Amino acid sequence: MLVLSSQKSNMTITRRGFFRFFIFFSGYLLFLVLGASVFSAIEAPEEKEKVASLRKLRSDFLKNHPCVPDNDLEDLIKEIIQASNRGVSAIKNATGEPNWSFGQSLFFASTVVTTIGYGHVTPLSRMGKIFCMVYAMVGIPLTLVLLSALVERLLVPTVGLLQWLNSRLGHLYQPLNIRIMHLIIMMLILVCIFLLLPAAAFAAIEPEWDYLDSIYYCFISLTTIGLGDYIPGDSADQPYRPLYKIATTCYLFMGITIMMLTLAVFYDIPQLNLGLLFTVKEDNSSEKVRLASSGQDLNYGASTLTPQNEENTHRQVVRVRSRRNDSPSPDDPGPKGIP
Fold first, then answer.
1. Burial letters for 221-252: b for 16+ Cβ neighbours within 10 Å, e otherwise?
2. Residue 104's closest CA among 246, 200, 231, 4?
């Protein structure tokens, strides 16, 4: 009977998880449809205006230069667009910095292994395309390992900050409130140091960017979306362009690392982790939520448990067992009834 009851309970939990997943999946599809509708409503009028402006410019050009055939102009525009999509600009003079200098190539390699993939510069040769695929297959896992190792090391001072908040504010606030406060501090560090300050620097360096464009670039890059509409250092008269590209590469690696660290802090708060709602087995997740609500210290990641904590835990277990074995009650018959 107990086995049948356990099986029915597991089936109930499984159905509940699938039902929650179905609701979430339906809401996600609705979210995509809503986003598409908003983007279409906002951007479609702007696109029509740009198309009309380009058609007028082309018409004016043909009127002012009647010797140029329409088909020849069309072929020239196609070649320019194809070259621009491959990262080759027709407006740069011969003295401009090439796209495949060492600084530019290092910047391109970083966008490949971090999966940002701006797409503004792509390999032109067949050998370059083959090498890019092989390089990405090896480089992306190595980058994930490197970023994970950096996050693990940065979790040590991060957990120290959480412990300091608990020691200072534990008598005033609940553990969940302190964890949320800790998450807010991490988010402020990410936004201020890796979004707002770099955006101010980009706005000052890039001649055609305002502050909103710079914040947009930083956000799109650190979230690895990488649309490629704003690329630092692509101005024709950009001084120290290779050095500028290398500095931007360092910024991207540091920013993505702090972004992953902030996400690790967020995901370790069970009450905020929506992924726990769709787990098939809810025993561990519910236990984790209960421990977090009761004030138990759940460290971020298994590797953050210090040797001192492990030793204290071991000592506590040994002490409890020794008291039970060394001080039995008078009524305890002992193992197997032996007094």
1. bbeeebeeebbbbbbeebeebbebbbbbbebb
2. 246
| Strand ranges for 111-158 from DSSP E | none
Tokens of 262: 């902030």
- For 214, the 3-state DSSP assignment is helix
Cβ–Cβ under 8 Å, residues 312 and 54: no
> Which residue, among 313, 273, 317, 318, has the nearest Cα to 297 in the 3D structure?
313
d(CA 177, CA 220): 30
3-state secondary structure 296-327: CCCCCCHHHCCHHHHHHHHHHHHHHHHHHHHC
Tokens of 44: 């479609």
Rounded Cα gap, residues 202 and 212, in angstroms: 10
Please state, in angstroms and rounded to a whole number, the distance separating the CA atoms of residues 291 and 313.
Answer: 16
CB atoms within 10 A of CB 71: 8
Phi, then psi, of 283 in degrees rounded to 5: -65, -50
Helix/strand/coil for 238: coil
Amino acid at 317: V
Query: Which of 262, 253, 206 is CA-nearest to residue 229?
Result: 206
Question: What is the per-residue pLDDT across 30-44, written as a single tens digit (0 to 9) for each?
Answer: 999 999 999 999 999
Give pLDDT tens digits for 68-81.
888 888 888 888 88
pLDDT at 176 over 60: yes
Q: Residues 62, 66, 72, 76: is their CA dihedral positive or negative?
A: negative
Kindly list the distances between the CA atom of residue 130 and the CA atoms of 102, 105, 123, 291, in Å, as whole numbers in the listed order: 19, 16, 9, 51
Cα separation values, 233 from 80, 106, 116, Å: 21, 13, 17
